[in-house]
Amino acid sequence: MKIVAILAFGLLVTLANAQGNYKKVCYFANWPYYRPGAGQYGVDKLDPFECTHMIYGFAVLDKITYEMVVYDSYVDIDLGGYQKFTGLKTRNPNLKTLIALGGWNDSAFSTQYSELVSDPAKMANFVSKALAFVRQYNFDGLDFDWEYPGDPDIHGSWENTVDHHAPLYRRDYEIGKEAVIVSEAVDYWLAQGMPAQKLIFGVPSYGRTFRLANSSQTGLLSPAIGAGPQGPYTGQDGFLSLYEICNYQKSGWNVVTDPTGKMGPYAYQGITPLSNAITATLEGRPFNTNTPAPTPTPFPMTTTKAMTCTSEGSYYADPANCSKYYRCVNGKVVTYYCQSGLVFNSAINICDWPYNVPGCA
Ligand SMILES: *[C@@H]1O[C@H](CO)[C@@H](O)[C@H](O)[C@H]1NC(C)=O
Ligand SMILES: *[C@@H]1O[C@H](CO)[C@@H](O)[C@H](O)[C@H]1NC(C)=O
Ligand SMILES: *[C@@H]1O[C@H](CO)[C@@H](O)[C@H](O)[C@H]1NC(C)=O
């Protein structure tokens, strides 16, 4: 079983305008607050000088009123998320802070955004309430982040071959074929008259992973049979964050770079391989914008009778093998193994990096 992942960069950067000013627009996501261990972060960790514009994701549309509302009142309000975020401007007065409405989770599967923009009465109400929202919480603006169907990554594990998720340039094997290419999308916008200084070029900071069909075929366009395993922090099939990929890379994956420099690298690894490639996309928002909190996962292998189940859903670390753990599922003990390079961390019930688990490093 092999896996390949494709990675891209961190932030939304931009095309510089003629004056040499440029916007470096960054998204802040509120849900990594719930990630385990080192994956946990909140507004407190932001550097107010990192970007020229920072966007807080996400507020959502109220299902009944079609008005913009707070999504996670605990993180956004009770813990002071909004307030601390806009407060970054006290340290960097040139910073602009915006609130994003929508995102993948709220807008990609719903007809609500179409219903809103096609109804003038709903729109008029939305606009006045959105303006009040932005002012109430002291944001500088609103990012209307409607990710309508068809908007996401260009390639990923829903396909049966491995490829970069957002190719910047057309590759030789795409010449003369229909293909979505990021640089060509930029050219298209410019050709249609969009001023360059109004184009924001998105660079996704995550990778897509694939499980390879044949362990001898590890390159791009190799046959794939589904998504790679979940990362220890982000907990989503076929997806890894930049920092998860960096850790895998340090743990010895094979990194393959493109000698022509057209494409970013990818990586793969023996048993649970992965590839990551640095690519860029015009679509700046992380594809997994509303990644659910991670769940302990890995691969169910066998059931065992050696233990007895006392509490449904409970986890038990194997005392003799750091990568092995058990869980009570429907009254039975099920044995699991963490993916290669990870060990079970019983403090947070998740497969984790060995250095986070005493005795397993
Ligand atoms: C796996 O790939 C190798 C190298 O391309 C090839 O020789 C072999 O036949 C493939 N195996 C299967 C089962 O397709
Ligand atoms: C994503 O949307 C679903 C359905 O509305 C909701 O139940 C879930 O809490 C959302 N998750 C996040 C992280 O936004
Ligand atoms: C833990 O279990 C895995 C899967 O059976 C095995 O490959 C590995 O060698 C074991 N590690 C130790 C330290 O026994």
From TrEMBL:
Biological process (GO), any one = polysaccharide catabolic process
Which chemical reaction does it catalyze?
A: Random endo-hydrolysis of N-acetyl-beta-D-glucosaminide (1->4)-beta-linkages in chitin and chitodextrins
Renumbered to this chain, the signal peptide range is 1-18
Specify one Pfam family.
CBM_14
Q: Which UniProt keywords apply?
A: Carbohydrate metabolism, Chitin degradation, Chitin-binding, Disulfide bond, Glycosidase, Hydrolase, Polysaccharide degradation, Signal
List residues of the Chitin-binding type-2 domain.
306-361
Say if the entry is tagged with keyword Transmembrane helix. no
According to its UniProt record, the EC number is: 3.2.1.14
Q: Which GO terms describe its cellular component?
A: extracellular region
The chain positions of domain GH18 read 22-153
Keyword set includes Cytoplasm: no
Q: Provide the GO MF annotations for this entry.
A: chitin binding; endochitinase activity
Q: Which InterPro entries match?
A: Chitin-bd_dom, Chitin-bd_dom_sf, Chitinase_II/V-like_cat, Chitinase_insertion_sf, GH, Glyco_hydro18_cat, Glyco_hydro_18_chit_AS, Glycosyl_Hydrlase_18
- Similarity field: Belongs to the glycosyl hydrolase 18 family. Chitinase class II subfamily.
Q: State the protein's name.
A: chitinase
